[in-house]
Amino acid sequence: MSKIGFLWVGKLKESFSRDGCALYWKKLSRFFQLEETVIKDAPGKLPPTDKNKVEGERILSKVKPGDVLILLDEFGERLTSRTLADKLKAWTDAPNQRPVFVIGGPFGLSDEVKAAARHTIRLSDMTLPHELARLLLLEQLYRAGTIHKNMPYHHD
C-alpha cells in the first residue's frame, strides 16, 4: 500500500474540523497508508514572519529522505479533481518517494519551506482557514482515490 504523509501546523480546535477530518482520514486510509505529523504552533507573542520561520524550521526538521513536499497555498497550481487524481497516482506510484502534503498555520509557510517544495497546489482561489483546508484536502484525496478505483463517488 502506497504511503502519503501530512505535515500540518497546529492541532484541530473546532469540532467540525476534527469530525470531518476523522471521517475522511478513515475513508482515505482504505487506499493509502497515512502518516500524520502535527507541528506545534509557534509562540503567539511572535510577529507573523518570526512565527513562519519557527514553524518552517519545525516542518523541515520532520522531512525524511524520499519525501516530496506538496504545499497547499492560495497561489499554487489550480487543479481539477481528476487532475489531482492523476498527479496523486504519479506521486504514489513513483518508487522510493512519499508525497507529503504541507499546510501551514494562519500566517502561511516560510520561504525556506516554499523553496524545499516540489509542488504547490491550491484548493481554492479564496483564502481558507487552515483547519478547513485540511478537511478539503482529505476529501479531495479521498475523491482522487475513488476516481482511480472507479468507485461511484465522483460524478463529472
Element layout with pairings:
Blueprint: E1 3-9, H1 15-28, E2 33-39, H2 48-61, E3 67-77, H3 81-93, E4 98-103, H4 111-116, E5 119-121, H5 130-148
Helix pairs in contact: 1-5, 3-5
What does this structure look like?
The protein has 156 residues and is an alpha/beta fold. It has helices at 15-28, 48-61, 81-93, 111-116, 130-148, and strands spanning 3-9, 33-39, 67-77, 98-103, 119-121. A 5-stranded parallel sheet has the order 2-1-4-3-5.
Oligomerization: single chain
User: What structural category arises from helix and sheet content?
Assistant: alpha/beta
The helix count comes to: 5
Strand content: 15-25%
Task: Give unreliable regions as ranges.
Answer: none
Task: Summarize the biggest pleated sheet.
Answer: 5 strands, parallel
What is the CA-based Rg, rounded? 15 Å
Approximate shape = globular
* N-to-C series of helices and strands: EHEHEHEHEH
Report the mean per-residue pLDDT as an integer: 94
Helicity, in percent? 40-55%
Q: Count of DSSP E strands?
A: 5
- N-to-C span: 27 Å
Subunit structure: Homodimer.
Organism: Pseudodesulfovibrio karagichevae
Protein name: Ribosomal RNA large subunit methyltransferase H
Keywords: Cytoplasm, Methyltransferase, rRNA processing, S-adenosyl-L-methionine, Transferase
Task: Throw out a few tags for this protein.
single chain, 156 residues, alpha/beta, five-stranded parallel beta sheet, 5 helices, 5 strands, 42% helix, RlmH-like, methyltransferase, S-adenosyl-L-methionine
In short:
This protein has 156 residues and is α/β, with parallel strands linked by helices.
